[in-house]
Specification:
homodimer, DNA-binding, 2 strands, mainly alpha, two-stranded antiparallel ribbon, 153 residues, 6 helices
DNA sequence: CAGCATTCGTTGCATCCGCAATGAGGTCAA
DNA sequence: TTGACCTCATTGCGGATGCAACGAATGCTG
């Protein structure tokens, strides 16, 4: 009988742990955004980027807030339809789109941003003793190419 | 002109950072699982749990490897169809399902587990100076109820 | 200027997802 | 034993997702 499988502890596997923790941190806030404002996570990222970057293209969103372009495009469309975002063509390069907050979008962000800020502060307080280590670790993961190791062929 | 929006740095927002880092860590390995073995992340979690827990029910998977029950059910079905997993009824309680690895499933895990183990070791090596802080921070997030803060009504 | 490659955003499609409803099985008390 | 209630797993459904294909616009080379 083959009981020869190597031991493996999923609960210590870093990709798993990070995924579960990330879902957990996002869930509470995301639920609130959705129920109170009808905003999804993708839409929220778009709004936040517009709030401090002004006029932005889809590919800008893709690069800056880590949204795959079709996801960014659809999130932007929903926001336009909801009246929070205005979409114009870029006169210098008509392939590009210029997304920016409408007045009602700016008003919305006046409510949303303090919520996020408070949540961030709460999280930082919770992990205060380990915050530096956490951030350093995340920076490391983001800087490295994690798949480039020795197992490739 | 309303430039009165509060500053907010998405790139420092912990739910965002964790989500992006988690996607990054999972992506490389997940791509490989999919291309070489045709296995998704959900299916992989099921397999790993079966590899060291023996016979398991769906609700077991839900609790242990953080898979929503319909997701666990569908992942299990795909694995049964692929021949890696055997599904029997629990004779003591016929509501429950008993999932276990087939021989070919065990063979598969003989290939998969070392891959995951090597990846984990590589990640631990990368963040070695901050590993303790990272794990402590993740434990904190998992222990607390992150949405329970003062902003609720 | 003509021709070809590249960039950008959208959309079609197959799949996946979560939630709620369903149905089969089990428990408990009268 | 019967009937009300609970637990499991599956499935239907609306919506989201990622990828590839596409059309429009631009850049590049000769």
């Amino acid at each position: 009988m083959p009981t020869d499988l190597p031991d493996f502890d999923l609960s210590r596997f870093l990709p798993y742990r990070l995924t579960v923790a990330a879902e957990r941190l996002s869930a509470a806030l995301a639920r609130r955004y959705r129920s109170e404002f009808g905003i999804s996570v993708a839409e929220w990222r778009v709004l936040v980027h517009l709030a401090d970057a002004g006029a932005v293209s889809i590919r800008d969103l893709e690069a800056r807030v880590h949204l795959e372009k079709s996801k960014a495009s659809r999130a932007a469309s929903r926001l336009v339809e909801a009246g929070y975002v205005v979409k114009t063509a870029n006169p210098d390069d008509r392939r590009l789109v210029r997304l920016s907050l409408s007045d009602s979008g700016r008003t919305l962000m006046t409510d949303l941003l303090p919520l996020a800020r408070a949540y961030q502060e709460r999280l930082e307080y919770l992990v205060a003793p380990h915050l530096d280590g956490l951030e350093a670790a995340l920076d490391t993961f983001m800087a490295e190419e994690p798949g480039g190791g020795g197992t490739g062929s």
